[in-house]
Amino acid sequence: MPALAYGGVGRRVAYYRRLKRMTQDQLAQSACVALGTIRKIERGERGVGDATLEAIAAALSVDPMQLRTDRSPAQTPVHDALPALSAAIATYDLPEDGPIRPLADLRAAVSDAADWRLSAQYIRISHQIPELLAEVTRAYHAAAPGRRAIEAGLLVRAYRSADAVAYKFGARDLSARLIELMRWAAPEADDPLLTASVAYVRTETFFAAHAHAAGLRALEQALDAAPAPSSRPEAAARGALHMRAAVIAGRARDASAAVTHLAEAQALAEQVPEDVYRGTAFGPDSVRIHEVSVAVSLGDDHVGRALDVASEWKPPADLPAERRSGFYIELARAQLWSGMADDAFESLKVARRIAPQHTREHPWVREDASTLRRLKRADSETLSNFAEWCSAT
């Protein structure tokens, strides 16, 4: 895509930079863009290409669309990157020749991608992950058979970051393929906790297929195979599986199983500090967020529990952005079902401020924005703009 027109985008960059109380130098460092480039952009002296715009938007924690003068869809770069991602995984067993960085550098690159996933920076992932997957795949095959545990673990983590893009942007077949590759690579990593995290991610395929009862069975089998919670990482791995099982049990309308798994997750969360374990956030705050999710999944008389939790607690700012935005998306649905339309819209706006890319692509956001626009009838310009932003019908 050609560079965006001068002027308007620069004014928006300057506005959001000041809103974040950042200097031009701080923005340049955070976005990995030259200070002179930032100055010229803000003065309207040069255009902005997609990659630069997305780096600046990520540094400002805004959706790239909010900086664009033409308001062209921000998801286009992600969709454009999906064929390259498909090509990268098509050669999982026959990688092309190419350079391989030292393992320390590959670990750092894979960790960066995981951080972007947790902060819902899907555009960044989409640009970097095809080449990274190709390189990690080369490293895996270059290692001696039977001595590939480290490379296999890196592959699993890289596949998971790629899957976040595929799943969030509706490429469900590609997501399912990535999850199968995670399951293929995980055994060679020889890490039972990584295998448990793959079982956690695999639940996406059951959500997508609305096969909730089957998904619950798969998670319960994973719990049977998971290590006993004799250490913090082991407790977190089991707790995350129980947390996930509670939600999918709720979707299956199995209230008994949902309550049981949520209680198990709460008990395990008391044993560990909130943190990210094998790529999954777990701890007391994450479980509380899932308590809201379970209440919304069960619906009917359970929805009030979501409102009760939100009335006395909000996710702390140090939780991953994807998880915090998910809390407000779930809360918005509970509020909408309870006749609290204005509160629901406020929650959706909070979710957008926290993780715009995650919020914009969430199907519930589109559904609820559409419902709110119908309920308002003579709706406000702000609501109309929000609905258009997330492509609500």
Molecular structure report:
By secondary structure, this protein is mainly alpha-helical. It has 4 domains: 8-67, Orthogonal Bundle (434 Repressor (Amino-terminal Domain)); 74-190, no CATH class; 210-313; 321-393, no CATH class. Helices cover 72% and strands 2% of the residues. The chain has 20 helices and 2 strands. It has helices at 8-19, 24-31, 35-42, 50-60, 76-90, 103-118, 122-142, 149-168, 172-189, 192-209, 212-225, 232-251, 255-269, 284-298, 303-312, 321-337, 341-354, 356-361, 363-376, 381-389, and strands at 275-277, 280-282. A two-stranded antiparallel sheet has the order 1-2. A hairpin with a 2-residue loop joins strand 1 (275-277) and strand 2 (280-282). Helix 6 packs antiparallel against helix 7, helix 7 (122-142) packs antiparallel against helix 8 (149-168) and helix 14 runs parallel beside helix 16. The two termini are 26 Å apart.
